[in-house]
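Researcher: Batch entry, complex prediction.
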Amino acid sequence: MIDLHRTLAHLHQTQTSISLSTTDLCFLLALRTRADRESLASFEEEILIDVFLQICELTEPGAENPRKRATHAIQRLRDQRFLARVDGAGFVRAGEYAMTRLAAAIVDFFLAEEALTRESLTLLTKTLLSHLAALKKAANQATQPEDWKREIIEPLRITVGDLVGGIERRQRGLDAQQEEIRERIGTLLKRDWFAAVDTCEQLLEDTTTTLRELNEVLLQDTSHLQALLQDIEQLAADANAPEAEAATRHVMEQVDRVAAWGTARQRTWSEYYQYVQSYLRNVVRLDPNRAVSQRLRDQLATFLAQPFGLVVADAPSIRLLRELEAHVERPPVTRPRQDREPPLEELPADSLPMALESHVRHALAEGARSLAEVLARVLPHVPPEERFRATGRVAALVSTEARVQAPHERTWTLVPGQLVVEDWSLQVPRSSS
Amino acid sequence: MKELLYERLEDVVQDELFPEVDLALREGHHIDASDTTRYGFLAEAQALLEGFYRRYACELIRSPDGYFYLLPSGERLGRRHLSVGEMLVGQALALLYLDPATIQAAGVLPRAQLLELLANLVGQDKLVAELNPRRRRRDERIAEELVRKELDKALRTLAALGFVELMEDERLRLRAPLLRFTEPVRGLGSPEDAMRQLIAQGQVLALETSEPEEEEQG
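Model: Structure tokens for the complex:
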């Protein structure tokens, strides 16, 4: 499985890019043609230079130092992995080179010899059917995991996968061919207008026939292919061979894609076909001198001086009346009346403040001469949870009942209730004591 | 002899497609051959429906260019004429429809192409003035934005009438009814005569020219 993120990261990190000039591209095409003509698997350096010189003469006539340019071109193509040195002799002698898969793919695209035809599709699907039938037989007989790997998984991945891949590649070739035909029809009409009608119609008909035939083959054969693949998948599931199941499913997806291509392309082409036929019939044939465009252009340019409007029907939509609703008088927004005084509640009287006052006076009368002494006498009469609050009140009472003397550095004294207070000395007036 | 699919008007009205097609025609929609189902229905029922709509003082027209539409001639069914903005956009779209360059993409093109063509043919200033008669400003950016909005509005109307199809990614699909905009210039005679004839037929209404307004200051 291809790890896309890893591949992208690698390409980014290595700053991989491809740059191919017209001369280099022609050079590769010429190499491929020469290899086909002379059945060459690789090229000696002298052949490369010879081919480059011919191409250079064609694309850049009169260029200086063509041999030097050839050497640079070969190096450039090697750097970009279009050519690979296959002799392994290094600098010892002149090299021998082969075109890489990358170069072959680019050349194939431009040669466009691999567009799908009825013949090639029929041949490929029949070969596929026969391979799959053999694989089904092998799957029936496979008993060991090694049998599955050798007899089913590998052939599925390589032979069958390549065959389906071959169909897909040719489909892409046909897509490119259709794109060219569309462009050609547009160009023909632009250039020759009425005189191009027959050629355009012929191009349309030819492509329509090709697509219809391909779709017929696809519809007929892909169902057989899928049936065989399902049988193999079932056998793999029964034999507990998950790898074989996955390989089968992968091919099934490829076959699905191939079938979907046929339907999608036929639909798209059908729309295009109708559009162009309508154009040829209503525009080109009715206006052989191509005068309407110019007259419409003139009409548009002067339209604002003499405007007019096309008349169209404009019946309003049928209206459904709403059900009758009695008109309701809505009262003004008001706030509910409420008694803002909170209700009184009966609570037991808080006797602590009065009791504290009495206890403080009593403590002072008994001779307590510091805040800590007063607190030591008073706090035992106070519940523990009230002692902290009571301490503050006692301090306040003491300050009114006696004269407080607080030195600059006051001592901290522990009083009942685990409280520590800053202590004061007290001077009690005679009348109080 | 071709067998008739509908023998009586009742058969046509009973067809499931009738309410949908009838409402579309009454709302001014043009139905062309690319809408195979509704166009096929109309082609089959044409003879019966012509009499049916005549009673509403309307004419069911089948253009030789391959589309149907309803043309009211009396007051029984509502009618209206396209505005100046809608006519400008419609004619520009018709011009694009006639251009062989739009064939490659089967009549699909970006909206920007329409705006560019209109600006070239009519002129940006005239376009701004005509599409924003009450909101003239000196700010070019605001004016362009207003023109774009008005064009979008016109395109929505033309799409509702079946002249064009609005697609995703700011693209348009041109449709055969756009050829209605070329009617005044398609004949061999003079466009003036053709226009007079179209007005007499009730196909077209002559509009008054708008007076230029004073530009806002600032």
